[in-house]
Amino acid sequence: MKKRCINRLVCTLPALSCNESVARSLVAAFVSLPDPTIEELADIRCAVSEAVTNAIVHGYRGKTGEVYISVKLFDDRSVRIEVRDKGVGIADIKEARQPLFTTDKSGERSGMGFAVMEAFTDKLRVYSTLGRGTRVVLEKQLSKTDNG
Questions:
Q1: Using an 8 Å Cβ cutoff, are 126 and 96 in contact?
Q2: How many C-beta neighbours within 10 Å does residue 147 have?
Q3: What is d(CA 53, CA 96) in angstroms, rounded to the nearest whole number?
Q4: Hey, which residues are catalytic here?
Q5: Helix (H) or strand (E) holding 27
Q6: CB 146 within 8 Å of CB 137
Q7: How many angstroms separate the most distant Cα atoms in the chain?
Q8: Which residues contact 63 (CB under 8 A, 6 or more apart)?
């Protein structure tokens, strides 16, 4: 049986570092509707934080732009979150997903963003085109509630 989207959130934020916490809180508030566990909510907050930070820091590299966020809740208690930018794109996704890989020449970034996203979600997909941007898709299955 195909799962059905029961609710969705779509938002666009300027690619400013101060909006990382806004995105994390907004997504967490929306995802709290189906009553996830505290751990599930913390996992989602962390993964979203990393995805949005990557879009701001690596996607736009200090230039202006927008971060596009879409969250869908499904009837099987799964959540799909997409974070997209129209930034520089990723030349080699496989390489970028390796722990400790970073394009940050200043040494301030650890290169663990994708590893963190993967650790806190059930599925991570990354799509990117040079010069056109990147789309990160995070999926998480929420546990069943006592009510069903």
A1: yes
A2: 5
A3: 15
A4: 50, 54, 109
A5: helix 19-31
A6: no
A7: 50
A8: 87
Do 124 and 54 meet the contact criterion of CB atoms below 8 Å apart?
A: no
Q: How far apart are CA 49 and CA 68, in angstroms?
A: 13
pLDDT tens, residue by residue, 59-85: 998 899 999 999 999 999 999 999 999
Tokens matching residue 66: 């927008």
Q: Are 121 and 114 in contact (CB under 8 A)?
A: no
- Residues 80/139, Cβ–Cβ less than 8 Å: yes
pLDDT confidence band for 98 (50 / 70 / 90): confident
Residue 99: which pLDDT band, with cuts at 50, 70 and 90? low
Average pLDDT for 5-15? 98
> In this structure, what DSSP letter does residue 145 have?
P
CA distances from 144 to 14, 36, 141 (A): 35, 9, 9
- Is 11 a residue whose pLDDT tops 70? yes
- Which tokens go with 38? 């505290």
Whole-number Å distance between alpha carbons of 32 and 89: 31
Q: Which residue has the tokens 């799509």?
A: 127
